[in-house]
Write a structure and sequence with these properties.
2,3-Dihydroxybiphenyl 1,2-Dioxygenase, domain 1, 3 helices, about 15% helix, about 40% strand, 4-stranded mixed beta sheet, single chain, 2 domains, alpha/beta, about 150 residues
Length: about 150
């Protein structure tokens, strides 16, 4: 039935700023942008919200896709959750050298939650990972598996 993950979506407040971050800072490739009106009911909006106007960007991360959506109408509110809060999610991006990515992005002004963490035992032994937030506070993880 399920064949795999089609894409990951991050809701953003300023699409152009987010494109610059994901493309120019993180190195994802911009495939295309789109904007328009969608049927609100299909998205789960309550009755009374008849239409939704969005701007979106579709990015390429290796073989995976990341969709960035800015809701112009209705406008969204800032996300205010802790990493442990139910429903909170993050996107994990596979990299070949976490330490190198960490240093390169620090040079570009990216602020990380910590330095890279190396797992030395257990089922994740050999993994190195580090977390950061995008301009809207969405959590991104870089993961290296050895």
């Amino acid at each position: 039935m399920i064949e795999g993950i089609h894409h990951h979506c991050i809701i953003v407040s300023d699409l152009e700023r987010s494109i610059r971050f994901y493309r120019d800072t993180l190195g994802l490739r911009l495939n295309f942008t789109n904007e328009g009106v969608e049927v609100a009911g299909a998205l789960g909006f309550p009755k009374g919200v008849e239409s939704v106007y969005t701007k979106e960007a579709h990015m390429q991360a290796g073989n995976d896709h990341v969709e960035l959506i800015q809701y112009v109408k209705p406008k969204g509110k800032p996300f205010d959750r802790l990493p442990c809060d139910v429903g909170n999610m993050h996107i994990g991006l596979r990299v070949s050298d976490v330490d190198k990515v960490y240093e390169e992005l620090k040079q570009k002004g990216v602020k990380f939650n910590s330095s890279p963490n190396k797992v030395t035992e257990g089922p994740l032994k050999g993994w190195t990972w580090v977390y950061l937030q995008d301009p809207d506070g969405a959590t991104i993880e870089f993961v290296e598996e050895r």
